[in-house]
Automatic annotation (TrEMBL), chains A, B:
Residues 4-154 form the tRNA/rRNA methyltransferase SpoU type domain. GO terms for molecular function: RNA binding; RNA methyltransferase activity. This is RNA methyltransferase. Keywords: Methyltransferase, S-adenosyl-L-methionine, Transferase. Belongs to the class IV-like SAM-binding methyltransferase superfamily. RNA methyltransferase TrmH family. GO terms for biological process: tRNA nucleoside ribose methylation. One of its GO terms (cellular component) is cytosol. The keyword Endoplasmic reticulum does not apply. The keyword NAD does not apply. CDD domains: SpoU-like_TrmJ.
Length: 233, 233
């Protein structure tokens, strides 16, 4: 099983951050990462109960990119999921599907939650390999932040004790695949409308993210893509 | 699927009761029952957010027996579970096992949660048909009340409803991707040892398979790969 960290991006309420720390302890997690958090203080400590040390040791970052850069797999969470396949950014998997994916791998995994009011920004979701959504009632989807963390950790904890198999491709390796493929597409002017190329690249990175490729697969793909690029130049 | 009500027995904190109402709304539940609750007021309403009507309509009872008497099945919850069969009262099933049981039935089901500090009394658990426990880390089992409700409702909600979201790429489309990519690799003589090319193709088809790409993604990939192949010839 992968090693999981929880990343809270711009959390607004100290009580929620404390509650998240507590439920992390309930499921045996230790690494909490905060991006531009609200002030924590007593309220956060009260809600953390016996998990104050998780709060105390939480790493704080000023921006999203710095917070995720050392992870092999970055999982974004969103309350808005879609079934329109032209809006692939919000094509999500369930927590259960996420567990099945993570069971087969090891590596450093970040599960990222956005602010309580508006969630992760599109450009942040774009930087995630996979987006996860908790299926809830249609008329009231917006879930308390710590409830969402509780549900995801509960689901992932079911996968423990499973056997380890592969090293996950790192974020850097996956970016290299997407960028090289993107550069080739550019060379051959695909897709024709320039403004659609960014979307094409995004689609590629999502496919690569979802496929959960191993380090070995990544290296093979990088090899063939570099060779293709060289030949096309 | 059974019709589920949540019963909170002697809840101590108004915020938790409000949070429970919210997560009930998130999972489409309406019936909240309170046995000798703490004073609710503003704190409960604040945490309920858009689920204030659930709080307002909650039925309040003075004793446990009166609260459960109209249900067909009463599920108790406990943080202490045991595998010693001489202490049968705390022999528990997992939320997942509960879901499997409830899927097969209909009727009125109460899921009962005890006070935040000590949980349900033994004599209350005795009155339950089944006891459920959420498997958590051994060194910190005690979970926030509303987190426990969130996890149980999440698990039970899996028994419901619709799935299919977008059209998955067909086998033919996926084969076309793999074969075109394989043909390109052949054109640029990658990997060099001819006998390894079959393995390379297999790796490609596995990655494509794992990524669970949509029909639309498949068509885009087929487009760019065909163009690449044409240019490389």
């Amino acid at each position: 099983m992968a090693e999981i960290s929880i990343v809270l991006v711009r959390p607004l309420y100290a009580g929620n951050v404390g509650s998240v720390a507590r439920v992390m302890a309930n499921f045996g997690l230790k690494n909490l990462i905060l991006v531009k958090p609200c002030k924590l203080g007593k309220k956060a400590n009260d809600m953390a109960v016996h998990a104050k040390s998780i709060l105390k040791k939480a790493k704080v970052y000023k921006n999203f990119e710095a917070a995720i850069k050392n992870f092999d797999l970055v999982i974004g969470t969103t309350a808005e999921s879609t079934n329109k396949d032209d809006y692939f950014l919000r094509i999500t998997i369930s927590p259960e599907e996420l567990r099945k994916k993570l069971q087969k791998v090891y590596g450093k995994v970040a599960v990222v939650f956005g602010p309580e009011d508006i969630g992760l920004k599109n450009e942040e979701l774009e930087r995630c390999d996979i987006a996860v959504s908790i299926q809830s009632a249609k008329d009231y989807r917006s879930m308390n932040l710590s409830h969402a963390v509780a549900i995801i950790l509960y689901e992932l904890s079911k996968g423990e004790g499973e056997k380890i198999q592969f090293r996950l491709a790192s974020k850097r390796e996956k970016d290299l695949i997407t960028n090289t493929f993107g550069a080739i597409a550019n060379l051959i002017k695909y897709p024709k409308p320039v403004e659609r190329r960014k979307i094409f690249n995004l689609m590629l990175s999502r496919i690569i993210g979802r496929a959960q490729i191993t380090g070995r697969e990544a290296n093979t793909l990088i090899g063939v893509l570099k060779k293709m690029k060289k030949r096309l130049k």
